[in-house]
What we know:
Helices cover about 70% and strands about 0% of the residues.
Amino acid sequence: xxxxxxxxxxxxxxxxxxxxxSLWQMTLYGAGGMLGAxxxxxxxxxxxxxxxxxxxxxALSLVAAGLTGLSYASLGSRYPRAGGAAYITxxxxxxxxxxxxxxxxxxxxxxxxxxxxxxxxxxxLQALPALESLxxxxxxxxxxxxxxxIAYRGIRESMWANVVLTLVEAGGxxxxxxxxxxxxxxxxxxxxxxxxxxxxxxPLVFLAQGIVLTFYAFIGFEDALNVAEExxxxxxxxPLGLVMALVLTVVIYMSVAIGAVSVVPWQELAEANAxxxxxxxxxxxxxxxxxFIVITVFAVANTGLINYVTTSRLLFGMARDGHLPPxxxxxxxVRRTPHLAIGLIFALIAILILAGDISELASATVLLxxxxxxxxxxxxxxxxLRPGEPRGGFELPIAVPALGALVCVVMFATRVxxxxxxxxxxxxxxxxxxxxxxxxxxxxxxxxxx
Length: 450
């Protein structure tokens, strides 16, 4: 008999997802999710908080986010299944409402990330002379259609596209590092902003804000967990690939941070609209400006593709396990992708693009993701203490997920205490909406069974 929380396997000859992802593809997929588009604009915000000590914020946030990353790596080696945090939540707590909330919270974060990125792509492409006459919304819509087509085409195609985009994305950051190397050693890397609240030094509250900002540069864990079912030898390659991605990411981030403040004073970096483009323009004035625009578009596209694949596998996994309508669990017999889930995502993103500015919604989903990470870390604690649970290829001391959960609580409190009341309110409304959707689905299911 199937126990609560156990996955439902495909029946009746239904095609399954293709297991084709290698270790190096997993590493680049994880790194692509973490490198993402954030560093191209994030570094200016961090400079405003941390001065020239941006590298310190990245180092400390790696420790904070790394705890959750290790928990995801351990869970992926134990339960290599599509569904990610939703499946883990159901397995640990066996509460359908909590599973539903966690799963759709992650899905909401993916949708808003793709939609926000689409508008960034549209705005950047408008800077190119050949495309300046096209509306931002049109360019954004074309971009989403291309990304959706790649996701529909197949996991192999998506992974190869991710490899190319990650190499271009990382290449842009390596370019920043290369052109800034002659300037290394010219800046004081421990120069902090002086606030009215303090005459010198860096108060803990500002250090916390810097860590919170850079923490979000390392949160591609859910992306990796959701493709574990399509990974070769997941018990070994899932944790190894995720850890390798973390190491690669932090080395690049810290090098970029040191190079950036060495070329551009942190005060000016904080004011720049495109901080890294400004670094390249000053360190290498011979480099064509339009090339860095293209690199930025590729970086955003990589994040969009990863979120597209992740969200489609999440909806697929939740539908297969009975938490969403079963139609979303269908797999295309030729492409071996969850094509109906991919189609639904495209429709929802198109609506979000038409809605215009969604920055506040995206900010709210960041808060919700911290709650998801709290649930995932505590779920690993529960599963480690439960007799009979399978062990993975990467086991952790129970203190690691416990500390990861504590860090998420601190990050959440710091973010809420930042003073912007709109994001917490939107997060609360989203939670109520997700709960209401659960009640509708449950009532319909009961009516169908009756």
